[in-house]
Amino acid sequence: MNSLSFACCIVFLSVIFCFCTKISLADSDNLQDTCPTSPLAKQTIFINGFRCKNPDAISAPDFKTSELTQPGDTDNFFGSAVTIVTAEEFPGLNTLGLSIARTDLRVDGLVRLHSHPRATEMFFVSKGFVLVGFIDTSNQLFQTFLKAGDLFVFPRGLLHFCLNAGYGTATGLSVYNSQNPGVVTISDAMFEPKPDVIKKLTKGFVTGHLRNATLSGFSSF
User: Which of 111, 124, 214 is nearest to 171 (CA)?
Assistant: First the structure.
């Protein structure tokens, strides 16, 4: 094989590799205008996603949801509630590579460190004052305060959190660029879910981050 042919083979294999990598790292593109989720029955065939609804049965309500109109129950240890809505609950999202969520935080409420292995998250604060942040792969912390109307991005797969730093309840709305973003919570993955253990971890985490949050975070207000 001469050098030119070898170079062409390398280029070709590189293109194929990049193409395959793109497919494996993202939700598949939809092949039709719409594909609302078919009503879920007992599955006999398992596929990567959901079956499409009969096109003749598709209607406008398939593309509307009221799943996020009511606040979540924050009467728990962390004082937070996250309601994620995917194509399973919202048929119109099927094949679009999107899911949505609502986060409710009581005073001092915390959404503990977690990651989404399959999605980047856009977090919009609709009410309240929230401390948010993420940690990159070099263990550098990026955090800031958000007021109502502000937007923050949590990159895909990175650990992130949000904490109600205001004097009233707070609400955030999220959009994920995956039909099924997934959630990995560090304390659940690494430790037994004992209340005293979680309390110590949470107390240390919150105290450390509030100590690092200087007054510069308020400079834009």
Answer: 124
